[in-house]
């Protein structure tokens, strides 16, 4: 491990420790202590076992080392009892610790999930969802591994080795045994660690390939419909196969290297074992040792080898777990771009006025999208934003909602800068019907009720009626319990839009942003909804974004946006009289209708 990696491992350990030693939860802490006691108990008894066994053998062989105790049968029974106790303590330890571990996984997963939701729009647009959920999954698994193996196996193993060394020295009074065991372990550990270093790189590559293939699969399946439209099944399959081929290669290298590691370990361990046993056999032949001593050495060697075999795997997996957890902690440390200021106040909306003052904004610094935007909307007024595609209309809505911060100027609601209030209160005050409504893969009822926590059934139905979707829902065999499919794909575009409108009406916010909210509807339905919106708009500030000028002609103020600038502004009559961009677009759309 390099120095930076050790530092990172230390950092990870520090991050994890509060989960294992939970502050303020005495019950869980008590469990940790009891589990550790059970662990120590099992270790002590495990050391006792071979001593009892050796005494029993010597009893049989007739040397009178332990005549004064129970005799061979009694010692064997005691040995059996010790074995049972060892296992009993081990299981007790696991049972006690299980709750601590499970609680830690849950809390960590929750914290990460929470954090990901807090991250900015910019982060989410650039990041692939399939990859994110994989990182959480692997990170939590990594923690599980670390807990199970590092805390309860590898750490105690070192203590056990020291004990065993002491007992062997005490019984045999010969430093050569200790030397062979010590050297074997040293070489073994060196070999294991260096091969593992190399394997970690292979594993990392394998992980990357795995994430990549997974992302491609998720992206492709999400775009199922598009794939069909373009006859691209073969192309997609090829792309996926290419990603999988990369994984295959990396996985193969990983398993070959594992075979190499395992075999090398077996050779080293066997050399050490045979060396010690030859020494012991010679000792018995020369009459320096009893048969019981031989059995004792053998039993201890086996006792050491089993966890040693395991230490290779553990080291590998710990390295892996640390890598996985680091990825998760990096995610946890990813700063949210948009955060509440210290002492941010709760937004208080009294008259719902919205003010954009000289707002400048670009998603990327090199490409400004909005220039000097000035908007002033008062309570009960409807403002409309029209203009060509890509002119920045939806961006205005996103800025008001504070998905992004402006690069210049300010946005105020009732005189409060959106950057000075809590996001929670800001989001509460604004209802958005987005350009593309995406629904949860659940029932229609769930999706509408999402607009307002604890919405009652009559409220949901009223909202559906206002959004002109109630009759449609009732015509479905399952009514409000109908499932909408992934992202709402079982509904038509217009139906989805109306569900989106219903849930926003249910939210009942003082400020409404309708981004092409009725674009997918036929004129008649649109007209009906328009009335509901008109009704809902009473006493609110409304921003309507639309391509269809007929839907916004009664707005109090219409802004014509072009290339991120407001080029015309006024009510319908004024704009028609100006005979500018609006009026020519109006004439064009009028003539299309006839
Ligand atoms: N996340 C983003 N990162 C970078 N550029 C973006 C991002 N979102 C939008 N843009 C760019 O910003 C410009 C304005 O986008 P916006 O969505 O506001 O347009 P619009 O006026 O709503 O268009 P439409 O009528 O087609 O919905 C577009 O040119 C778009 O390419
Ligand atoms: Mg848009």
Description:
The chain has 594 residues and is an alpha/beta fold. The protein has two domains: 3-333, Up-down Bundle (ABC transporter transmembrane region fold); 354-593, Rossmann fold, CATH 3.40.50. It has helices at 3-20, 26-61, 71-118, 121-126, 129-172, 175-222, 224-229, 233-285, 291-333, 393-400, 423-429, 444-449, 457-466, 470-475, 493-507, 523-537, 572-578, 581-593; strands at 354-361, 370-377, 382-386, 408-413, 416-417, 430-433, 511-515, 541-545, 557-562, 565-570. A hairpin with a 2-residue loop joins strand 9 (557-562) and strand 10 (565-570). It is elongated. The N and C termini lie far apart (76 Å). Bound molecules: adenosine-5'-triphosphate and magnesium ion.
Give a summary of the structure in a few sentences:
With 594 residues, this protein is α/β, with parallel strands linked by helices. It is built from 18 helices and 10 strands.
Q: Structural class of the helix and strand makeup?
A: alpha/beta
CATH architect. name of the largest domain = Up-down Bundle
Determine the N-to-C terminus distance. Answer: 76 Å
> How many strand segments?
10
């Amino acid at each position: 491990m390099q120095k930076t990696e050790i530092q990172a491992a230390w950092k990870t350990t520090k991050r994890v420790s509060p989960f294992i030693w939970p502050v303020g939860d005495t019950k869980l802490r008590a469990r940790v202590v009891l589990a550790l006691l059970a662990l120590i108990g099992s270790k002590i008894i495990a050391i006792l076992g071979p001593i009892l066994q050796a005494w029993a053998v010597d009893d049989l062989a007739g040397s009178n080392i332990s005549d004064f105790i129970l005799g061979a049968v009694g010692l064997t029974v005691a040995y059996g009892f010790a074995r049972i106790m060892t296992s009993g303590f081990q299981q007790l330890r696991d049972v006690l610790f299980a709750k601590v571990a499970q609680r830690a996984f849950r809390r960590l997963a929750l914290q990460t999930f929470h954090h990901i939701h807090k991250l900015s729009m910019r982060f989410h647009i650039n990041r692939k969802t399939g990859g994110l959920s994989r990182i959480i999954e692997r990170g939590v698994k990594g923690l599980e591994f670390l807990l199970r193996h590092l805390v309860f196996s590898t750490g105690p193993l070192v203590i056990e080795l020291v004990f065993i060394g002491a007992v062997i020295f005490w019984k045999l009074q010969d430093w050569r045994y200790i030397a062979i065991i010590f050297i074997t372990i040293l070489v073994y550990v060196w070999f294991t660690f260096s091969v593992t270093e190399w394997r970690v790189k292979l594993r990392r590559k394998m992980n990357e390939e795995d994430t990549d293939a997974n992302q491609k699969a998720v992206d492709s399946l999400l775009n199922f419909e598009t794939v069909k439209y373009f006859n691209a099944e073969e192309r997609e399959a090829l792309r996926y196969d290419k990603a999988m081929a990369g994984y295959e290669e990396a996985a193969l290298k990983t398993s070959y290297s594992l075979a190499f590691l395992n075999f090398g370990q077996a050779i080293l361990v066997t050399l050490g074992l045979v060396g010690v046993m030859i020494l012991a056999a010679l000792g018995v032949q020369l009459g320096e040792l009893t048969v019981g001593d031989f059995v004792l050495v053998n039993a201890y060697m086996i006792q050491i080898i089993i966890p040693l075999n395991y230490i290779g795997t553990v080291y590998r997996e710990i390295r892996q777990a640390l890598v996985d957890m680091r990825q998760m902690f990096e995610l946890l440390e990813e700063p949210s771009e948009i955060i509440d200021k210290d002492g941010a106040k709760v937004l208080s909306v009294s008259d719902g006025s919205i003010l954009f003052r000289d707002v400048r904004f670009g998603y990327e610094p090199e490409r400004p999208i909005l220039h000097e935007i000035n908007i002033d909307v008062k309570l009960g007024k409807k403002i409309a934003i029209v203009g060509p595609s890509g002119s920045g209309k939806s961006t205005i809505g996103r800025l008001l909602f504070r998905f992004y911060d402006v690069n210049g100027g300010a946005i105020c609601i009732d005189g409060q800068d959106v950057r000075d209030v809590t996001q929670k209160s800001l989001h509460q005050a604004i209802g958005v019907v987005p350009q593309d409504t995406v629904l949860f893969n659940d029932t229609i009822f769930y999706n509408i009720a999402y607009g307002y926590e604890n919405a009652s059934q009559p409220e949901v139905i009223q909202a559906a009626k206002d959004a002109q979707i109630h009759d449609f829902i009732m015509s479905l065999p399952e009514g409000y319990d109908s499932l909408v499919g992934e992202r709402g794909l079982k509904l038509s575009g217009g139906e989805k839009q109306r569900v989106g409108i219903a849930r926003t009406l249910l939210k009942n916010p003082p400020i409404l942003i309708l981004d092409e909210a009725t674009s997918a509807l036929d004129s008649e339905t649109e007209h009906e909804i328009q009335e509901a919106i008109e009704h809902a708009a009473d006493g609110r500030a409304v921003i309507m974004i639309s391509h269809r000028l007929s839907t916004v002609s009664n707005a109090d103020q219409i802004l014509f946006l072009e290339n991120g600038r407001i080029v015309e502004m006024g009510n319908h009559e004024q704009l028609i009289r100006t005979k500018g961009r609006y009026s020519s677009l109006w004439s064009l759309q009028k003539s299309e209708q006839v």
